[in-house]
Amino acid sequence: MFDISGKQITVGGIVLALLILFPLVVTSPFGQHVAIITFMFAMCGVAWNLMGGYAGMFSFGQVAFFGIGAYASSFLLVTFNVSPWIGLMVGGVISAMLAASIGYPCSNLRGHYFAIATIAFAEIIRIVFNNWKLVGAAEGITVPMLKESVGNFMFHSSKLPYYYIILAFLLIAVAVCYWVSSSKMGYYFRAIKESHDIAHVLGVDVVRYRLYSIMISAFLTSMAGTFYAQYILYIDPESVMIMPISVQIVLVAMLGGANTVLGPVIGAAILIPLSEYSRAWLGYKGTGVDMIVYGTLITIISMYQPNGVWGSITYLLRRGK
Amino acid sequence: MTIRRVLLVLAVFAMALALGAGSALAQQKVIKIGALYPLTGNLAATGLDCKRGADLAVEIINGNFDLNLPFAKGEGIPNLGGAKIEIIYADTKGDPKNGLAEAERLITQEKVVALIGAYQSSVTKTGSQAAERLKVPFVCSDSSSPTLTERDFTYFFRVSPHDGTMARNQFEFLKDLGDKQGKQIKSVALIYENTEFGANVAKMQQQYAKEFGFNVVSDIAYPANASDVTSEVGKLISAKPDVVMHAAYITDAILFTKTFKEMNLVPQGFLTMAGYIESDYLPTVKADGNFMTVRSTFALDLAKKKPMVGQVADLYMKKYGIPMGENTARSFTAPFVLADAFNRAKSTDSQAVVKALLETNIPGDQIINPWKGVQFDPKSHQNIHASAMLVQIQDEAYHTVWPFEAASRELKWPFPAWKDRK
Predict the structure, then answer these.
(1) What value of ipTM does the predicted structure carry?
(2) Measuring CA to CA, which of B71, B198, B296, B360 is 20 to 30 A from B221?
């Protein structure tokens, strides 16, 4: 099933080794922070890609799953003292269930209509959380600073554990995406993307496979949400349930290259450091120059590399052979 | 050729090193403070107000001014050989995630020895967490969530009053109104924008309404970006409260003021805050803003009792061409508190500075705010003297009306009906 050549293993191994060594070389907390946020969005982008890239379901509501992941673990930790690791799984399961329950009635929506439904869904979730007293409503949840340990999913003296955890999460997401894309399911997804009706005629259970892709995507996005909550230690609907996060996730995937396993990772590796460093270098003046630079770059990439950066790289590599 | 190239590279390196060393020498007498503010995004105007305040404060500390403020006379900080203060700004965009990242960057890369900011309480929450981890003092003078000083952090200090104190002040005013002026208030309606800020204010107001024996007849939350609020105002009208207490940011403050007028809501008074005292409010609503009573920690007419306030306000006007406002006045005070601590600590070492901050005792006549001074609670690190006063808009300007003994104009109460106003 895994059709990986020796060369790919070597290259992958080298990249992985570099990523593992990275925080030992770049010791500044800001540099590490940028890497952590990059991996976090890369993970969300990979998860989005399963729906948007492979199965052709453009979701602009991924933030709902991200937020639920953040809320589930934080709520369980603060209220019942449950380990965030269990919260991570609970959040993932809730997100997947919710994704299925919303995905089922939407299973006949196509294209733009599906995208609109996802926006509405995410907004509903945000409004519910903004008014839900049990989970802190608009005040959000402040995660208490516990003793640092892997069990508590909390580290104060160093960012390295956060870095390796989110790197591991990203690898899991990439592995899942790779497995899906090269399995029968991946081909079903692509068939659904090309045409619902033809896929249906060919015997693909369209509704079921659409739900699979939404659920897997929701679970992975939710994991990233839990990570965010444990990393930032404060969440409210204004910071984990707002539309710009969904847009960022779509951008990362589209810019890097939808429909490819590593595209979103490349997209995140370009976009997130760009936005973080441009803010750090130019943002202090309050002139918005950083956002002009950021916006210009996105425009240029989408004009000249409509297949995404990764799509273009693979195209060039193939042509070079 | 290659040797020449190697030499060239070496020369460049040497020059870079020399430049680095040179700047290090030049910076010996500069103390760097980091400032976190929302300099872009929907609160950018507020963030810039705060930045101007902190900039003016630093100018006064570093330069030679004849003002009754700490370190105004004489340049720099005396006990540190006249060291100057430099503020390194970072844009948070109002995102808690950026608060954390920028605080860490300022501390570890820009080597700031203390932080100020960050306006939004959620950003201050994560920024001060980073400061606490990295053991660097964070002096906040503009975030008002009570939870910030309930965490008992070692390195976090707050100069300005929090929403709990200010809610209590509002009810003290209502009680005073009955006791001293015979205008009895029985019921209040709470209306607030539904994010961390508004929700926290309302929680505190509920608590103090009970304590002071006022009846809360309505409790309405609305989204801050609402484009129509007629149903909210309709609910207020049917609840018939004596006083409407409104927690709003700037855009919703303007929208509500217009809707109050259109739907002719006339309670005995409006007790408002935040958006109602931003620099854009009055220029937008003009005379419709008259007779709104606003909680504040600053008013230009404080100059009548404290001439120094007028001098600072003039400097501000000269520098920026706009009148000094509340946000500016809040952020103005933090650099002085820090400079005072550096001076007494005779060092910028964080342990020494925290110790000095705990012993802070700046008298009331040396700050532009209307407080008895700055002195921190040993446990929560909240300024024990911080409180709010009330200003009322009359003739399209803010005038102090409460505490009654500090008033520069008489309170206009009850609120005049909209139709009776020209």
Answers:
(1) 0.85
(2) B296
**What's the pLDDT at A196?**
84
SS (H, E, C) B296-314: ECCCHHHHHCCHHHHHHHH
What are the pLDDT digits (tens) for B376-399?
999 999 999 999 999 999 999 999
Higher pLDDT, B279 or A127: A127
Smallest CA–CA distance, residue A118 to chain B, in Å, is 21
The residues spanned by each domain of chain A are 6-320
| Chain A: closest CA distance from residue B420 (Å) | 39
Contacts of B47 in chain A (CB under 8 A): 286
Least confident window among A293-297, B90-94, B211-215, B307-311: A293-297
Is A171 within 8 Å of A261 (Cβ atoms)? no
* Mean local confidence (pLDDT), B57-70: 92
Inspect the interface and report whether the beta carbons of A33 and B104 lie closer than 8 Å.
Answer: yes
Q: A265, exposed or middle or buried, with CB in 10 Å at 0-12, 13-18, 19+? A: buried
The residues, any chain, with a CB within 8 Å of residue A141's CB and separated by 6 or more, are A71, A74, A75, A78, A135, A229, A234, A235, A236
> Chain A within 8 Å of B100 (Cβ-Cβ)?
yes
The CATH classification number of A6-320 equals 1.10.3470
The B residues from 138 to 157 touching A (CB cutoff 8 Å) are 147
Best of B49, B105, B144, B145 to mutate (most A CBs within 10 Å, chain A): B105
Query: Chain B interface, mutation test: which of A279, A281, A292, A294, most B Cβ atoms within 10 Å?
Result: A279
Cα distance between residue B327 and residue B74, in whole Å: 27
pLDDT higher for B317 or B29?
B317
pLDDT above 70 as % of chain A: 98
Nearest CA in chain B to A286: B39
Closest-CA residue of chain B to A36: B101
Chain B residues with CB under 8 Å of A279 CB are 91, 93, 98
User: Which chain A residues touch B125 with a CB distance below 8 Å?
Assistant: 142, 234
Contact between chains at B108 and A28 (C-beta distance less than 8 A): yes
Tell which wins on pLDDT, B233 or A151: B233
Domain boundaries, chain B: 24-161+305-374, 164-296+389-420
Does B218 reach chain A within 8 Å, measured CB to CB?
A: no
Q: Which has the minimum average pLDDT: A20-24, B2-6, B271-275, B411-415?
A: B2-6
Taking CA atoms, B366 is separated from A55, B60, B62, B68, B274, in Å, by 66, 13, 17, 6, 25
The more confidently predicted of residues B25 and B112 is B112
Calculate how close chain A gets to B10, using CA atoms only, in Å. 23
With CB atoms and an 8 Å threshold, state whether B196 touches A28.
Answer: no
Taking an 8 Å cut-off on Cβ atoms, the answer to whether B122 and A234 are in contact is: yes
What is the CATH architecture assignment of B24-161+305-374? 3-Layer(aba) Sandwich (3.40)
Q: Which of A243, A44, A270 is CA-nearest to residue A125?
A: A243
Residue A97 pLDDT more than 80? Answer: yes
Pinpoint the alpha helices (H) of B109-162.
Answer: 121-133
Closest CA to B345 of B336, B335, B354: B354
pLDDT, chain A, mean: 89
Q: What is the mean pLDDT of residues A126-130?
A: 93
Q: Does the distance separating the beta carbons of B101 and A238 come in below 8 Å?
A: no
Superfamily of domain B164-296+389-420: Response regulator (3.40.50.2300)
Q: Which residue has the tokens 């981890």?
A: B133
What is the distance between the alpha carbons of residues A106 and B414, in angstroms, rounded to a whole number? Answer: 55
- The predicted-structure confidence for A2-61, as pLDDT tens digits, reads as follows 556 778 888 888 999 999 999 999 988 899 999 999 999 999 999 999 999 898 888 999
Common-topology check for domains B24-161+305-374 and B164-296+389-420: yes
